[in-house]
TrEMBL record:
One Pfam assignment: MatE
Keywords for this protein: Antiport, Cell membrane, Ion transport, Membrane, Transmembrane, Transmembrane helix, Transport
InterPro entries reported in the protein's UniProt record: MATE_fam, MATE_MdtK, MdtK-like
Cellular localisation: Cell membrane
Principal location listed in the UniProt entry: membrane
Reported function: Multidrug efflux pump.
Source species, domain of life: Bacteria
Organism: Eubacterium segne
Entry protein name: Probable multidrug resistance protein NorM
Transcription regulation among keywords: no
Membrane-topology annotation of the record: Multi-pass membrane protein
Amino acid sequence: MYYDLTKGKIYKSLLLFALPMIAGNLLQQFYNIADTLIVGQVLGKAALAAVGSAYTLMTFLTSIFLGLSMGSGALFSIYQGKGEDKLLKLSIIHAFVLIMLITVILNVAVYVGIDGIMHFLRTPEDVYEGMRTYLIIIFSGLFATSLYNFFSCLLRALGNSTAPLVFLAVSAVLNIGLDLLFVMVLSMGIGGAAFATVISQYVSGVGITIYVLKTRRDLYPERSQLHFNKNILKEIANLSCLTCLQQSVMNFGILMVQGLVNSFGTTIMAAFAAAVKIDTFAYLPVQDFGNAYSTFVAQNYGAGNKDRIRKGTKAAFIMSISFSIVISLLVWIFAKPLMHIFISKKEVMVIAAGIKYLRIEGAFYFGIGCLFLLYGYYRAIKKVEMSVVLTVISLGTRVALAYILSPFIGEIGIWMAIPIGWALADITGIIYMKKK
């Protein structure tokens, strides 16, 4: 189903368009949650720490593809709103070639530099071999991840948020089944968890590619239109590369924090690995709502509906903040049972550290909810550089405070730095929005 977000009731349009995106990304988290849960319960603390640290790295790498695709998607939505079919087709071809080329280059680079990356992350000796094994396998799924992100962003930009959900649902179920088979039945260890994820990624990536090629033949440009267009490439490069930079800076900052966490040893690494999965799952809906809101703004920006954008912005902030407050309360109350899902009850110190993280950082989800809306807004109105500025403020504060506070108050300093960074970025973004 394709939604025209330039028409209809704003609250209803935003919610109906966002729900499949939220459901889809929640399912996507099952890729990593299945690994974490099964690895933590079956293989133990060291294996959990290895998979958790690898997850942070993979999130950073995936953010590059996601940023490029989200930036291109903003341009697709603007052309869709304007009704510029020819420019839409050309922009899709240009963006696809650019993103696939970057994917190949990045894939080669991570294999060549794998040991340097692990040393940068300050990986402990008892985790090193397991994490290296996991990464060598998981890197082979980067191309599939890139395919999925490109075509899912394309479909969402055109108003279809349901089809990506279907492919993720199949992939998530397959991933869980293969995890159980490879790790618990065949005893393939940490490598089995990685193979399960890669196979599932290719199912979703190749599947959605075939779906788009078969169902949207109207997006194929004619032969006479297949030519290099410098202006379109410049537009794509501006939106995609800046969005990619914003996503990459955000996740590179998290990667630096991961290195600091690793320096506290395996117990804190394992606690962080489990807590971050809970954390990501908790605020993922507001992240996807921010992306849905971005498509809403971009389509209306292309159509010139400024008043609708203003009303939609007010509605989006009310909905996001309300949801975030509810989720914060639930995470605060159920922090301990949530940690038990990922780690054995015998690991008392790991669970205690994880609970501290969730109760300090999880109390302020409304901060990250507002920040995702601001990212989406500035991307949609072609001011992606402002998203980069907000990311630098948020992550710069987080990293700096984490390194400053942790020598004095331990890992709690790392957890406290997170909401402070969100707050500073939110204040900056809202002031700029109101003034400009």
